[in-house]
Amino acid sequence: MTKTAVVLLSGGLDSATVLAIARSEGFEIIALSFRYGQRHDAEVVAAQSIAKRAGVARHVIVDIDLRAFGASALTSDIAVPKGRSAAEISHGIPITYVPARNTIFLSYALALAEVSNSSDIFLGVNALDYSGYPDCRPEYVQAFERMANLATKAGVEGRRLTIHAPLMQQTKGEIIVRGVKLGVDYARTLSCYDPDASGAACGDCDACQLRLKGFAEAGVPDPVRYRERVVAT
Q1: DSSP letter string over the chain?
Q2: What digits encode the pLDDT tens for the residues 69-105?
């Protein structure tokens, strides 16, 4: 019997790699993406491209609007930080943090998994090369999994739900090496917080800097377009 997994697919490097990992483990994939009022639609377009290439069984795109709450550079008219040092990126919670975003996304994934008779949810959070987001830590994922099994009909009736975060303890470089081995087409991914109208990445935001650092560590050229070609230092 084929197993089904719900994979949170943002269109970024990490989620594309997680989708490939879930496929390699024999899961049939239901991808879940969001238009949540983010600064641009390019990441949803990237997610659609990734899902199509991967041949996912179903790709659900949900429209919600977190601009109603704001308080993030990704959902309001707050400038995206650019040119921050590695020390600055690794310290504190940046203004690109979207309040409760992963909790909201996982709640939708939980509902989709339950109605799809799936016991598995995959997401690409990472506790090493990340921008200080509190909902990217192992304690958070473990806590949500416990809650999920308390709060669902499936969990109460004995169909235990597992949340998989296979990239949690890997660096960006290690993630990229793993993804290349699995055949991930990173040219289809988008990590940038502030791409231009053509979809070219800025090269200076935290996400771009972490991505470029990862490709440099992996010894693999980054195939995405940047406004000006940047080289990780």
Answers
A1: --EEEEEE--SSHHHHHHHHHHHHTTEEEEEEEEE-S-S-SHHHHHHHHHHHHHT-SEEEEEE--GGGT--STTTSS-PPPBS--HHHHTSS--TT--TTHHHHHHHHHHHHHHHTT--EEE----SSSS---GGGSHHHHHHHHHHHHHHSHHHHTT---EEE-TTTT--HHHHHHHHHHTT--GGG----SS--TT--B-S-BHHHHHHHHHHHHHT----S-BSS-----
A2: 999 999 999 999 999 998 888 888 999 999 999 999 9
CATH architecture of 3-185: 3-Layer(aba) Sandwich (3.40)
In whole angstroms, what is the distance from residue 86 CA to residue 157 CA?
47
How many residues does this entry show for the chain? 233
2 Rama sector, left if φ>0, alpha if ψ -120 to 50, beta otherwise: beta
Cα 200 off chain centre by: 19
Q: What is the rounded end-to-end Cα distance, in angstroms, of the chain?
A: 48
Q: Output the pTM of the full model.
A: 0.95
- Give the pLDDT confidence of 210-231 residue by residue, as tens digits: 999 999 999 999 999 999 755 5
What residue ranges do the domains of the chain occupy? 3-185
